[in-house]
Specification:
The protein has 28 helices and 44 strands. By secondary structure, it is α+β, with helices and mostly antiparallel strands. The radius of gyration is 60 Å and the shape is elongated. The relative contact order is 0.03.
Length: 930
């Protein structure tokens, strides 16, 4: 049957469509009311606020049908709104769908997929306008509520008709139109709204919705709204929405067969959503709380606001792990949804489906760069890049450091990842690292930032630590580090103490319990002596004496090693004669000590090969001689240090000395070489310090001689206080304390002082003699020696400077006026009775008070001690305030001894304490008065 020709004026047959619709209303008046109510419901409820969304969806369908990138333009002209688009033009089927009200057929598109809603029920959103023109290059139609009402009125013949003309459906009757779409567009919808305000509201809504619609409707590439242009551009894994050519929004996107997932990017950072709506593809009324936007392919209810009951919500989770994989590793936490209270059933189902996929899919970066599923991953909170580089090959399922911050790690544990603590790490590292001890040092350095305090350090209590002997220690407790060994290229391995391999050391180990000891402390450990005592019988090959000696010497070669304990001096070394010698019985080649020792000294010379291997410093610290060496004992209890004359020195101590630091082998010095020996002692800081006291000073002062004279019987050239009494000698400044001192050392020294004072061959000034007498008296008082321990000398040095074999010791200043200078011996200046008595005992001589009886002249005037004359004359005489005073015009005293003599004196003090003062203040007579 031939198809009826189309009326060019009505290409879509709208007349027939109107006739059919009107006939239906006439035959069933309630149908008109139903259509009007249905249209109002769609406008006010189903498609409320969705006018531009629905028109954009129709434009997207047209673009898809045409196979082009669609374009939409929106603008207002007064109260009229224009919405134009490119794509497939209007068809007769489309017109029939538009006028059918409840028909919105979905049909497959030529280029694949399904339509969004072309010319279907969503077009009812335009019914807010009283007149709508749909202009297309294939023909145009218009809907007009007033014309519809007029058509119905013209058909009513019965005034009693039940048709209601107040409410009529505005888009059931279509008329042909001569309108043409705007240039460059294929279709244009023109809405004549109530006023300009309503038109402006529609345009404003379109401008607000345009960026989202370009994401939802991929068939559309551009939307122009009121002179502002929005475009969608693909940029790798991102979609960019531009506004007037400038980037407006950027989204990271992942695609799956059933959904697209997008998350915003701003300023180069992922910006998770705090809330959004489910889109399929346009926004529904279903709220979501996921951090990313989903544009799904799910069936909806007719108003496209809710999901169809048969919709597979879980299918929309597809693609989310791919989105998480695209997110930069250090920002992945932004798209990992934690368990949370959902906003509704759909949100709950979709959130759980997303978490399930995140749990099992491989999207999580590992430390080696491979993708892991969280349920198989290990996450170490706080993992750093340096630590990950070391652990990646050891702990293969370890998550990348960029996803190991504490927030992301917690989220991953919620997805099934295993959280590792430091204690777990220590356990898992057992057997790791192989033979590369430097790997462990790098590991400890990388771990250090994760150990801020003692509590976290305790968690690493079982961390493996390589030992210097090749074994592995569990933790740092009981492990030592000898300071300085880590700086050696080939550090020695002590067998007597467990030490950390220096190549594995890092300061973190100190915080984990490693004990740092100095080289000196390592050599002082009793375990070393015990090992040496065990000798060759020990089962430990490392305890071989030669091996131990090698380690000891290499430790002694460290800069801060110090001197080895004396017990180690017994370690044997090769001598120049090919024999093995204890180290402390050897001297270094060209040792200056060898030059000052007697020819038959018991020392050997260490072999040159040993010196080349270890160096002279280490050998000297072990005890090999270069100069003099010291014996040290922090708590001596007996004279058992093999020092010459040690027992005699010990006997001079009422209690044992607190410590012993002494120069050894002093008795082996060639007597002719003491000047050189003293220089050698003074040049070495260790031995120089021993010269100031203790055994060394004691022995050297007594037994070291220069030209046959003991050092304590010589004085320094610069020491003038004892000039004439002791001969001068030049010695190093550090040895000056070995020479004659302020007091004698003992009874023998005191006897020598007295003998020198009594030697008429010596020229000793009276002042020197007085100082010597005072020193002797002081030594007696301090208990250095007793008077009975000293033989009296043959004579004594008097105030005249001569030696008298009949001396008299002066015990008070006024005696000097009457005792002849050739016999007067002063114990001190001023002389006093107690000192005079002590010195008289030493000299076996009388005091002046014993040798003479002195009687002042009778007469004189007894005056008050507080009188002016008494005070003035006492002060002039240098006397303390007296108790009894007699003033004489010219005072004389009679001295009774071997002969009676009369002397003029300025003052005299009787035995009873009376002070006789002379008003004549002239000096005393040099000779007795006739």
């Amino acid at each position: 049957m031939p198809r009826p020709e189309t009326d060019p004026a009505d290409p879509f047959g709208t007349a027939d469509l109107r006739r059919s619709t009107l006939q239906g209303w006439l035959s069933s008046p309630t149908r008109l009311a139903e259509d009007a109510a249905a249209e109002a419901e769609l406008l006010e409820i189903g498609y409320r606020d969705r006018l531009f969304t629905e028109l954009a969806a129709n434009a997207a369908d047209a673009a898809s049908l045409a196979g082009i990138d669609g374009r939409v333009a929106v603008w207002a002209d007064g109260a009229t709104v224009h919405v134009a688009n490119t794509g497939a033009p209007l068809t007769a089927a489309g017109v029939r769908s538009l006028t059918a009200l409840r028909v919105s057929p979905k049909s497959p598109l030529i280029h694949g997929g399904t339509t969004v809603g072309r010319f279907g029920m969503g077009f009812r959103a335009t019914s807010l306008a009283a007149r709508v023109t749909l202009a297309s290059r294939s023909g145009s139609i218009e809907f007009d509520a007033d014309r519809t009402r007029g058509q119905i009125r013209a058909l009513i013949d019965d005034p009693d008709s039940e048709l209601d003309l107040d409410r009529v459906p505005a888009q059931r009757l279509a008329w042909p139109s001569a309108a043409q779409p705007a240039a460059g567009f294929d279709t244009e919808v023109v809405l004549e709204t109530a006023d300009e305000e309503a038109a402006a509201a529609i345009v404003s809504a379109a401008q607000h919705q345009a960026p989202d619609l370009l994401l939802e409707l991929e068939a559309l590439a551009r939307i122009d709204v009121a002179g502002r242009s929005y475009e969608r551009l693909a940029d790798g894994d991102t979609v960019v929405i531009t506004r007037d050519g400038t980037e407006h929004r950027r989204w990271l996107i992942a695609r799956a067969a059933t959904a697209r997932w997008l998350v915003p990017i701003r300023d180069g950072r992922i910006r998770p959503l705090s809330g959004d709506a489910l889109r399929s593809p346009n926004a529904t009324d279903i709220e979501l709380t996921l951090p990313a936007r989903v544009i799904a392919d799910l069936p909806l209810t007719p108003d496209r606001r809710e999901l169809h009951p048969d919709a597979d919500v879980e299918a929309a989770a597809a693609g989310y792990p791919e989105l998480a994989a695209l997110v930069p590793d250090d920002q992945k936490q932004a798209v990992i949804p934690p368990p949370a209270l959902a906003s509704g059933r759909v949100d709950a189902v979709l959130r759980e489906a997303v978490r399930d996929r995140l749990r099992t899919d491989r999207w999580l970066p590992s430390a080696t760069g491979e993708a892991l599923s969280p349920e198989r991953a290990w996450v170490l909170p706080g993992l750093t890049a340096d630590l990950a580089a070391l652990l990646g090959d050891v702990l293969e399922p370890l998550a990348h450091p960029d996803v190991s911050d504490r927030v992301t790690a917690s989220l991953l544990v919620g997805l099934g990842a295993r959280r590792l603590g430091l204690a777990d790490l220590a356990e898992l590292l057992s057997g790791a690292g192989g033979e590369d001890t430097a790997w462990w040092s790098r590991l400890y350095a990388a771990l250090a930032p994760m150990v801020p305090d003692a509590r976290t350090a305790e968690e690493l209590g079982t961390l493996p630590v390589p030992r210097a002997d090749g074994r592995m220690n569990v933790g740092c407790r009981g492990l030592f580090l000898i300071e300085g060994l880590d700086g050696l290229d080939d550090p020695p391995v002590p067998s007597w103490v467990p030490t950390v391999d220096p190549a594995a050391y890092d300061p973190l180990l100190d915080r984990l319990g490693l004990t740092r000891i100095s080289p000196a402390a390592a050599l002082a450990l009793p375990e070393l002596i015990a090992e040496l005592d065990a000798g060759p019988d020990s089962d430990d090959p490392a305890a071989d004496p030669d091996a131990v000696t090698d380690v000891v010497l290499r430790i002694l070669g460290l800069p801060d090693a110090g001197r080895a304990p004396a017990e180690l001096g017994g370690l044997e070394l090769l001598g120049a004669d090919g024999e093995r010698w204890p180290a402390d019985e050897l001297l270094l080649p060209d040792s200056p000590l060898a030059q000052v020792l007697v020819d038959d000294s018991p020392f050997g010379t260490v072999a040159d090969s040993v010196v080349e291997t270890y160096g002279p410093t280490a050998l000297r610290r072990l005890g090999v001689g270069w100069g003099f060496t010291l014996v040290r004992d922090d708590a001596p209890v007996a004279p058992d240090h093999d020092l010459p004359d040690e027992e005699r020195w010990w006997e001079e101590h009422e209690v044992p000395p607190e410590e012993l630091i002494a120069v050894r082998d002093l008795d082996l010095v060639d007597p002719r070489q003491w000047p050189a020996a003293l220089a050698l002692l003074a040049d070495d800081p260790d031995t120089a310090s021993a010269l100031t006291g203790g055994y060394t000073r004691w022995w050297l002062r007594r037994y070291a001689e220069i030209d046959g004279t003991a050092l304590r019987d010589l004085r320094s050239v610069d020491e003038t206080s004892l000039r004439g009494l002791f001969d001068p000698v030049e010695v190093p400044a550090a040895a000056a304390g070995l020479l004659a001192a302020g007091e004698p050392d003992d009874a023998d020294d005191a006897a020598d002082w007295l003998a020198r004072l009594a030697d008429p061959a010596r020229t000793v000034a009276p002042g020197v003699a007085v100082r010597a007498h005072a020193a002797l008296v002081s030594a007696v008082r301090s208990g250095t020696f007793a008077v009975d321990d000293v033989e009296p000398p043959r004579g004594a040095r008097t105030v005249s400077g001569e030696v008298s074999d009949d001396p008299v010791v002066v015990g008070a200043p006024w005696w000097t006026s009457v005792v002849p200078a050739g016999r007067a011996v002063l114990p001190a200046i001023p002389p006093d009775a107690d000192s005079a008595a002590l010195l008289a005992d030493l000299l076996d001589a009388p005091t002046a008070a014993e040798a003479y009886r002195v009687i002042p002249d009778q007469g004189g005037e007894s005056v008050e001690p507080d009188s002016a004359d008494a005070v003035r004359l006492s002060a002039a005489a240098g006397l303390p305030a007296p108790h009894r005073v007699r003033l004489h015009d010219d005072l004389h005293v009679t001295v009774t001894g071997e002969t009676d003599e009369r002397w003029r004196v300025p003052l005299w003090v009787d035995d009873d304490g009376t002070v006789h003062l002379s008003r004549c203040r002239g000096r005393a007579d040099d000779e007795p008065v006739p």
